[in-house]
Specification:
- The protein is of the alpha+beta class.
- The chain folds into two domains: 53 residues, no CATH class; 172 residues, Aminoglycoside 3'-phosphotransferase, Chain: A, domain 2.
- The protein is 33% helix and 16% strand.
- Strands 1-3-2 form a three-stranded antiparallel sheet, sandwiched between helices. Strands 4-8-9 form a three-stranded antiparallel sheet.
- The longest helix has 19 residues.
- The radius of gyration is 19 Å and the shape is globular.
Length: 245
């Protein structure tokens, strides 16, 4: 009888995660650990078990923000967490993008996961530039008068391309006390237009913790025009978020 590798790695103290493209997440975690101060699990290896792909990584102490329930935390703890997140995401967004054939890609230069672009387990890209990315997002629709003005305006300008976590949510932020102990789940990370992280948070339809979502502009630069255009493209109401004083 073969050894259950999932149980084997867990018995050795590793956190084990089932994933779609293990090489992307492993490479991204290594890259982010090398270039930032962000607390990221230390990747160990990838393996297959029962026809599924897994990665093993170091255990991150603490509890995710979704389980902690953001609204139950004191305002002082919330502020401390936001300050740390701002430091970490400023770090992430300041990493120089390596020169390569494709501008918008995963850390290893190929396609990446993004449920906003395709089904959850389908890969998108890579894209040579932002214009190609925008055309793909519009499902090939030319940038003409049939496209709403708000979208035309945003898709007519170039944005800085930054390393983007691409799945920022309370479930992926680990906290112990008032300390952020880990930012996890880097499977969707990619080099993307600078506004993408912000609009993914503010316009994501299935958020369970809206109280945290409303604070996105405290740790990410807000992009109200891009968020409005994205909400129109996604067919959801746009709610402007005002930073706290």
């Amino acid at each position: 009888m073969s050894v259950n590798l999932v149980d084997e790695y867990r018995s050795r103290g590793f956190h084990v995660k089932c994933c779609i493209v293990p090489e992307i997440e492993l490479a991204t975690m290594r890259f982010v650990r090398e270039h930032t101060r962000i607390p990221v699990p230390e990747p160990c290896c990838s393996f297959q078990w029962d026809n599924k792909d897994y990665i093993a990584m170091s255990h991150v102490p603490g509890t995710d923000l979704h389980e902690l329930k953001w609204k139950t935390l004191s305002s002082e703890v919330q502020r401390t967490i936001m300050d740390q997140l701002k430091t970490y995401f400023d770090d992430l967004r300041s990493i120089p993008r390596p020169v390569g054939e494709h501008s918008i890609s995963s850390v290893i230069g190929g396609p990446f996961l993004d449920a906003r672009l395709l089904d959850w387990d389908d890969l998108s890209g890579p894209f040579e530039n932002e214009a190609e990315f925008n055309t793909f997002y519009r499902a090939g629709q030319p940038l003409d008068e049939k496209v709403p003005e708000e979208i035309r305006r945003v898709h007519s300008v170039s944005h800085r391309l930054v390393l983007t976590h691409n799945d920022v949510c309370p479930r992926n932020i680990m906290v112990e006390g008032s300390t952020v102990t880990g930012i996890i789940d880097w499977e969707c990370a990619a080099w993307l237009p600078e506004y993408w992280e912000y609009v993914k948070i503010t316009n994501w339809k299935n958020w369970e913790d809206k109280a945290f979502k409303m604070r996105a502009s405290e740790f990410l630069q807000p992009y109200p025009e891009e968020a409005l255009a994205d909400s129109i493209a996604e067919g959801i109401p746009y709610i402007p978020f005002v930073p706290r004083k």
